[in-house]
TrEMBL record:
It comes from the Bacteria. Belongs to the mannose-6-phosphate isomerase type 2 family. Residues 4-286 form the Nucleotidyl transferase domain. One of its GO terms (molecular function) is isomerase activity. InterPro entries: GMPP_N, Man1P_GuaTrfase/Man6P_Isoase, Man6P_isomerase-2_C, ManC/GMP-like_b-helix, Mannose-6P_isomerase_type2, NTP_transferase_dom, Nucleotide-diphossugar_trans, RmlC-like_jellyroll. GO terms for biological process: GDP-mannose biosynthetic process; polysaccharide biosynthetic process. This is mannose-1-phosphate guanylyltransferase. CDD domains: cupin_PMI_typeII_C, GDP-M1P_Guanylyltransferase. Residues 294-348 form the MannoseP isomerase/GMP-like beta-helix domain. Residues 355-466 form the Mannose-6-phosphate isomerase type II C-terminal domain. It is an enzyme of class 2 (transferase). Keywords: GTP-binding, Isomerase, Nucleotide-binding, Nucleotidyltransferase, Transferase.
Length: 470
C-alpha cells in the first residue's frame, strides 16, 4: 500500500485577497464551487486498493480547518501539526519517520494540497507506475509534460532509463525557474516540469536525509518522538522542530541524491499559484472570460473576474485583467503581472494593513464570525456556531455584549445561570461576566453580536475553560 501524505502549510499570498493567512488558497473554493483543492487532493488518494491511511502535515493555526474539511469529505487521516513553518524538508522528514513507525519500507507519496489535476484515473495510474521505481530504491517524482514555456516552474532533464520500471528515468539534472527563452530551450531538449510530488521507500529517504541533511532529520526525529496528543491531532515538539534548518526537500535531497528518478506524465495539471493560473483552469465563455460570483461584463475579453459576497462586480471594456472583489478588499491587475501580488501583500504587511492576512470572516473550531461594522467603542459581528459547537467559557474586562439570535437556539451560560435563547430573542452580557455560547440544536446557530466598550479587540478574551485546548 502507498502511504499518501499531504503537505498543506502554505499561505498562498499570490492569490490575495481571496487567499490569506487566515484561510489559505488550499482550503478555499477558488476553482470549484463544491470543494477546496485540499479536499480534492485527499479524495484523489482514497482508493483502498492502492492507498493506505492518509497523513496530513499542516501548521497548527490551520488544524481545525483541516479537521473540518476532512470530516466534510468523510476521509479519516492522521493530522500532524507543525508549530512553525520550516519549509518542505522538515515536513517530509517527519512524514517519513511517521510512516516508518509501522513499516520501515513503506512507500510514501508526498502531495501538495493546492494542485489541480484534471484526470484522477491518470494520476493514480502514474503513481502506481512510479511506485515500481520507488520500490526498487529510487526517489521518484512526476514530471509534467509542458504545455507552454512556463517561467514559474522548475524543470527536470530525464536521463537514462531505470531498469525494471517501465517509462521511468534517472534524473540528469534539475533546472530552476528559467526565463522564457530558457524555458523554450528546455522544452525543445525534452525537459519536463517539476510537479513537486515525491514517491519513495521510507528507509531510502531516511538514508538520504542522514547523508545530505542530518540536521533536518535529527530535528524531525526529536520533534516526533516528543510529540503530544492534542484532541485528534499530533502536536510536534516546538523546541525540537525549530532546530530544523529551513530548506526545501528539493535542495536538501533531490538535487544531491544519486537515486532521483522521474516518470514523465501528460495529464492536465496546475499548481494554481497565480490568478493567471486560476483563469487557465476555470471554464471560460466565448470571449475567454472566467467568472465567479455576482459578475456583469461588457466588452471584456480574456479576463478573470472573481466576486465574493453579495456585492456585484462589473467590468467594462477591459482585456486580459484580473479583478478580485471581496467584502473588505479589491484587487485589479493585468493578467500578465498577477504573479506580483505577493510583493503587494508584503507592502500591505509593512504598512500594517490587517487585510493583508486576515479575512473579514474568521474560522474557528466551533464555526466562524464575520465583522459587520466597527467604530469607536463598538463592534458588530455575525456569528455562526455549528451543531454541537461550544465557545470557550470566558470573560472580558473592557466590553459588554448583546446577543440577538436570528436562527436556531443558543444555550447561554451567564455566570451561574444556563438559559436557552431562541430566534428573535436577545440576551445581555455585562462587562466582566463569565459566559459561554453553545449550539445544542441540529441546525447552525446564527446570531448578531454587538460589543460596546472602551476596547473591542480579540485579545480582550480571558479563557477559563476551552474544549478545543486553545
Amino acid at each position: 500500500m502507498i502511504r499518501p501524505v499531504i503537505l498543506c502549510g502554505g499561505s498562498g499570498t499570490r492569490l490575495w485577497p481571496a487567499s490569506r493567512e487566515s484561510m489559505p488558497k488550499q482550503f478555499s473554493r477558488l476553482v470549484s464551487e463544491h470543494s477546496s483543492t485540499f479536499q480534492d487532493t485527499a479524495r484523489r488518494v482514497t482508493d483502498e486498493t492502492t492507498f493506505g491511511r492518509l497523513s496530513v502535515l499542516t501548521h497548527t493555526d490551520a488544524r481545525f480547518i483541516v479537521a473540518e474539511q476532512l470530516a466534510e469529505a468523510r476521509i479519516p487521516a492522521d493530522i500532524l501539526l507543525e508549530p512553525e513553518r520550516r519549509d518542505s524538508a522538515a515536513a517530509v522528514a517527519v512524514a517519513t519517520l511517521h510512516a516508518a513507525r509501522t513499516d520501515p519500507q513503506a512507500v510514501v507519496l508526498i502531495l501538495a494540497a493546492d494542485h489541480v489535476i484534471g484526470d484522477t484515473r491518470a494520476f493514480v495510474a502514474a503513481v502506481e507506475a512510479a511506485a515500481v521505481g520507488a520500490r526498487a530504491g529510487h526517489i521518484m517524482t512526476l514530471g509534467i509534460e509542458p504545455t507552454q514555456p512556463a517561467t514559474a516552474y522548475g524543470y527536470i532533464h530525464p536521463g537514462e532509463a531505470i531498469p525494471d520500471a517501465p517509462g521511468t528515468y534517472k534524473i540528469a539534472r534539475f533546472v530552476e525557474k528559467p526565463d522564457r527563452h530558457g524555458a523554450e530551450r528546455l522544452i525543445a531538449e525534452g525537459a519536463v516540469w517539476n510537479s513537486g510530488y515525491f514517491l519513495f521507500r521510507a528507509d531510502v529517504m531516511l538514508d538520504e536525509l542522514e547523508a545530505h541533511a542530518p540536521a533536518v532529520l535529527s530535528a524531525a526525529r526529536a520533534a516526533l518522538e516528543n510529540a503530544a496528543r492534542d484532541l485528534d491531532f499530533v502536536r510536534l515538539d516546538a523546541d525540537a522542530f525549530a532546530q530544523a534548518p529551513k530548506t526545501s526537500i528539493d535542495y536538501a535531497v533531490m538535487e544531491r541524491t544519486r537515486h532521483a528518478g522521474v516518470l514523465p506524465v501528460s495529464f492536465a495539471w496546475s499548481d494554481v499559484g497565480t490568478w493567471d493560473a486560476v483563469w487557465s483552469v476555470l471554464a471560460q465563455d466565448e470571449s475567454g472570460n472566467a467568472v465567479r460570483g455576482r459578475v456583469e461584463l461588457i466588452e471584456t475579453r480574456g479576463s478573470l473576474v472573481h466576486s465574493e459576497g453579495e456585492q456585484v462586480t462589473a467590468v467594462v471594456g477591459l482585456e486580459d485583467v484580473v479583478v478580485v472583489s471581496t467584502p473588505d478588499a479589491v484587487l485589479v491587475s493585468s493578467k500578465a503581472r498577477s504573479g506580483e501580488v505577493k510583493t503587494l501583500v508584503e507592502r500591505l504587511r509593512a504598512k500594517a494593513y490587517p487585510e493583508a492576512d486576515a479575512h473579514r470572516r474568521m474560522y474557528r473550531p466551533w464555526g466562524w464570525y464575520q465583522r459587520i461594522d466597527i467604530g469607536e467603542r463598538f463592534q458588530v459581528k455575525r456569528i455562526m456556531v455549528t451543531p454541537g459547537g461550544r465557545l470557550s467559557l470566558q470573560k472580558h474586562y473592557h466590553r459588554a455584549e448583546h446577543w440577538v439570535v436570528v436562527k436556531g437556539t443558543a444555550e447561554v451560560t451567564l455566570n451561574e445561570r444556563v438559559v436557552l435563547v431562541h430566534e428573535n430573542e436577545a440576551i445581555y452580557l455585562p462587562i466582566g461576566s463569565m459566559h459561554r455560547l453553545s449550539n445544542p440544536g441540529k441546525i447552525p446557530l446564527e446570531l448578531i453580536e454587538v460589543q460596546v466598550g472602551s476596547y473591542t479587540g480579540e485579545d480582550d478574551i480571558i479563557r477559563v475553560e476551552d474544549v478545543y485546548g486553545r
